[in-house]
UniProtKB/TrEMBL annotation:
The chain crosses the membrane at residues 37-58, 64-85, 97-120. It comes from the Eukaryota. InterPro entries: ComplexI_51kDa_subunit, NADH-UbQ_OxRdtase_51kDa_CS, NADH-UbQ_OxRdtase_suF, Nuo51_FMN-bd, Nuo51_FMN-bd_sf, Nuop51_4Fe4S-bd, Nuop51_4Fe4S-bd_sf, SLBB_dom. PANTHER family: NADH DEHYDROGENASE [UBIQUINONE] FLAVOPROTEIN 1, MITOCHONDRIAL, NADH-UBIQUINONE OXIDOREDUCTASE FLAVOPROTEIN 1 NDUFV1. This is NADH-ubiquinone oxidoreductase 51 kDa subunit, mitochondrial. The keyword rRNA processing does not apply. One of its GO terms (cellular component) is mitochondrion. Keywords: 4Fe-4S, Flavoprotein, FMN, Iron, Iron-sulfur, Membrane, Metal-binding, NAD, Translocase, Transmembrane, Transmembrane helix. One of its GO terms (molecular function) is NADH dehydrogenase (ubiquinone) activity. Its cofactor is [4Fe-4S] cluster; FMN. It comes from Pseudozyma antarctica (strain T-34).
Length: 715
């Protein structure tokens, strides 16, 4: 433990891991320094070269005011030089002192200049009288007889004094405005960096305290050792605003700050290439992470509480550890990491934003996750329709190879790792991990029976782990900033941040990263401008993509967006694709479209899925117009229960759950639709047949057990 602490601190504090020292002119607002430098220099030039009348307004402001402002400006200017030097040579301790005092100095200087400007402006008439008394009406010729051309245009002394005073007011006001706008635009980055440094220091101090306690406890009695262990296992508090490690009864979730967002280019507003990625902190000290070894990386992921973001919610660290079973070193087979980027579920579009805007995050995540699994290569299996995403990924991979970040001796760590992109052909079933592996091998995309699991027999018969894009892309940032930071978001067992793709009847559909456990209502109102027509116009919400049950309005007001809360409310987080439906929606038709989608995408390998999805689609199509019998509502529910859990993969479950949610919360809507249809067309038998169209001589499911006519018996 002591060696780890000393290694973290490094020589002169240079080993401390915080963003602003690695890329000084991009991170933490360090590029604010030259701008502030220019501002203060401008103040000094004005104060040093103009007359006291112009600068301090004789008889309007004391002469000492000009001197005080000059001294403040010189001190601030000198401090800017110190700050610039400390950033360039990465002297972290002095830089922290600079961060603390810089804003205060500049604020005092600007406030002093602003006060003087306001006083001069308010006493303009008095200043003009003083100026006129000093300059008077200047003659056309000077006292030594030399002609002074041009002064005749300012014959009245009052005119030139007016120009001078207003010029002075505008100059000082302009300089003050420039500083305000600059500090507003860039100064926040400095304060954010300071907050991160303080968080890092607190965590580092906790690590050292824990190491010291454990070391001293070894020499104590059993009772004392027990007390030390309790202290050493305590959870450090985090000065992170809303995100805390320990939940409290009044804890509220949501309102993720920008500096806590992992995916900072989701809308592709910035450069998606290597230069832009490094500016956002990607590839920072990746070599150090790789050199820590696979056990350390996996433990960091376990401590973070990260659960898979693909829908199942399986603990990521535990899943990655399956690749390193005892004796894995003796297995001569190559090992692979496969990234499931086959994002084909209706409503889901979060992974494509990562591949399009932050491809280097995914590639770096592949490298880190691959090191954790001791994999030799990664295959990124991308949905065939994602043309732009594939292009950005290929470009990013090319840049990473050229920069030595992947390939032979990746990042100079001695670890060899390759990354490949493979395009799918648009089949939804290939989003299932074993079907994806089959497709990757060039076979028909149909799920495999398990066991054996991919960790034993995966791609090309080799150990393989299939992971989601968001899960892998977030890993480097989690490890860099520490598992405690990530675990500070969300409720227990639901930690971290999550990308939510919000679509449907909202004012501003978007993909946004937010804290886990944020209330569903707050998520929509904070980031989407609310439901179209107001919250009272809401009918229901599908909280996790087309494969999860819908929730009615009264449930949406209370539920939290995490795995456990949604499960308690008989739904699921799924992929985090939120589909909002207002009261103009035909909810039966919407769920019917889901049923048709799953019927079309079923591979047909399992009978319950092949036949069940067909029956579901046909029955839901009839329910749209109300052509059904109330008994069929119970029949379709029983059918979904027979499909659920009885197939090789979970596609049958995905087809069944939306219908179960519809029947659970909106059954009266179906019954009312059937009643209206029967009022218009007469009774409807099981199977959708109208009684008036039936031949009474033949037995059908609806009239089984009734006597057949002699005519029917003879045929």
């Amino acid at each position: 433990m002591d060696s780890e602490v000393s290694e973290k601190r490094g020589r002169g504090g240079r080993g401390v891991e915080f963003c602003c020292l690695s890329y000084p002119l991009v991170k933490a607002g360090a590029y604010l320094i030259p701008i502030e430098f220019g501002f203060v220099a401008g103040c000094i030039i004005v104060l040093s070269t103009t007359t006291p009348t112009i600068v301090a307004a004789v008889d309007t402001l004391p002469h000492i005011f000009s001197l005080v402002l000059l001294i403040l400006a010189i001190i601030t200017l000198a401090w800017q030089v110190i700050g610039l030097a400390t950033v360039r040579i990465e002297m972290s301790s002095i830089y922290r002192l600079y961060i603390r005092l810089n804003f205060l100095l500049v604020l005092i200087t600007a406030a002093t200049a602003a006060i003087g400007t306001v006083v001069i402006a308010t006493k303009h008439k008095q200043s003009t009288e003083v100026c006129t008394r000093i300059y008077g009406n200047p003659p056309l010729n000077s006292s030594n007889g030399v002609s002074v051309p041009g002064l005749d245009s300012f014959a009245p002394g009052e005119h030139i004094c007016n120009y001078v005073m207003w010029a002075q007011t505008a100059a000082m006001g302009g300089l003050t405005l420039i500083l305000f706008l600059t500090q507003r635009a860039y100064g926040q980055k400095q304060r954010n960096a300071l907050q991160q440094l303080q968080d890092h220091d607190e965590e580092e101090s906790y690590i050292m305290q824990r190491a010291s306690l454990v070391a001293r406890g070894a020499a104590r009695s059993a009772k004392s050792l027990n007390n030390v262990a309790k202290i050493a296992c305590a959870t450090p508090s985090q000065a992170r605003g809303l995100a805390t490690v320990t939940d409290t009864p009044v804890r509220s979730f949501g309102g993720l700050r920008d500096q806590d967002r992992i995916f900072q280019n989701a809308y592709m507003r910035h450069d998606h290439g290597l230069k832009g990625a490094k500016a956002r902190g990607d590839w920072h000290r990746t070599k150090d992470i790789l050199l820590k070894g696979h056990d350390w990386i996996i433990q960091q992921m376990k401590d973070s509480g990260m659960r898979g973001r693909g829908g199942a919610g399986f603990p990521s660290g535990l899943k990655w550890s399956f690749m390193n079973k005892p004796g894995w070193e003796k297995d001569p087979r190559p090992r692979y990491l496969v990234i499931n980027a086959d994002e084909g579920e209706p409503g889901t579009c979060k992974d494509r934003e990562i591949m399009r805007g932050d491809p280097h995050k995914l590639i770096e995540g592949c490298l880190v996750a691959g090191r954790a699994m001791n994999a030799n290569a990664a295959y990124i299996y991308v949905r065939g329709e994602f043309y732009l995403e594939v292009a950005h990924l290929q470009h990013a991979i090319k840049e990473a190879y050229a920069d030595g970040l992947i390939g032979k001796n990746a990042c100079g760590s001695g670890y060899d790792f390759d990354v490949y992109v493979h395009k799918g052909a648009g089949a939804y079933i290939c989003g299932e991990e074993t079907a994806l592996i089959e497709s990757l091998e060039g076979k028909q995309g149909k799920p495999r029976l398990k066991p054996p699991f991919p960790a034993d027999v995966g791609v090309f018969g080799c150990p393989t782990t299939v992971a989601n894009v968001e899960t892998v892309a977030a890993a480097p940032t989690i490890i860099r900033r520490g598992p405690t930071w990530f675990a500070g978001f969300g409720r227990d067992k639901n930690q971290g941040t999550k990308l939510f793709a919000i679509s449907g009847h909202v004012n501003n559909p978007c993909v946004v990263e937010e804290e886990m456990s944020i209330p569903l209502k707050e998520l929509i109102e904070r980031h989407c401008g609310g439901v179209r027509g107001g919250w009272d116009n809401l009918l229901g919400i599908v909280p996790g993509g087309s494969s999860v049950p819908i929730l009615p309005k009264h449930k949406c007001e209370e539920v939290l967006m995490d795995f456990d809360s949604l499960r308690e409310n008989q739904s699921s987080l799924g992929t985090g694709a939120v589909i909002v439906m207002d009261k103009s929606t035909d909810v039966v038709q919407a769920i019917s479209r889901f049923a048709k989608f799953y019927k079309h995408e079923s591979c047909g390998q399992c009978t319950p899925c092949r036949e069940g999805t067909t029956w579901l689609a046909n029955m839901m199509e009839r329910f749209e117009e109300g052509r059904g019998n109330n008994r069929e509502i119970d029949m379709i529910y029983e059918l979904t229960k027979q499909m659920e859990g009885h197939t090789i993969c979970a596609l049958a479950d995905a087809a069944a759950w939306p219908i179960q949610g519809l029947l659970r919360w909106f059954r009266p809507e179906i019954e009312e639709r059937m009643r209206l249809y029967q009022e218009k067309n007469g009774p409807v038998l099981v199977g959708g047949r109208r009684l008036k169209d039936m031949d009474p001589d033949y037995a059908f499911p609806a009239n089984m057990g009734t006597p057949l006519s002699p005519k029917a018996l003879t045929q």
